[in-house]
Design goal:
The structure is a single chain. The protein is α/β, with parallel strands linked by helices and 78 residues long. It has two helices and five strands, in the order βαββαββ. The strands form two sheets. The chain has a three-stranded mixed beta sheet with strand order 2-3-5, with helices on one face. Strands 1-4 form a two-stranded parallel sheet. It is globular, with a radius of gyration of 12 Å.
């Protein structure tokens, strides 16, 4: 499922929740401290994980969940 995002949309909290759920499902919950937020029209996902593969899964999950929106994957591999 893809969601078109409108910056002034009242559905923003719902969008953030859907993205968080998509990331959780795609990564099997392997992102610690997962945070999804919007800043200046950009969706930012952050947290910590143990592998670059998990970080890549985050990008895949977010791209499937939203369209027409810039995304920053700030997940830290540590």
């Amino acid at each position: 499922m893809s969601i078109a995002f409108v910056p002034s949309s009242p559905g923003l909290p719902h969008l953030l929740e859907l993205v968080e759920q998509a990331v959780h499902i795609k990564t099997g919950g392997r992102i610690r401290g997962l945070s999804v937020r919007v800043n200046d029209g950009r969706l930012i996902v952050s947290g910590k994980t143990s592998s670059y593969y998990n970080k890549q899964l985050v990008t895949c999950a977010v791209q499937r969940a939203v369209e027409d929106m810039s995304v920053t994957n700030d997940v830290e591999v540590c």
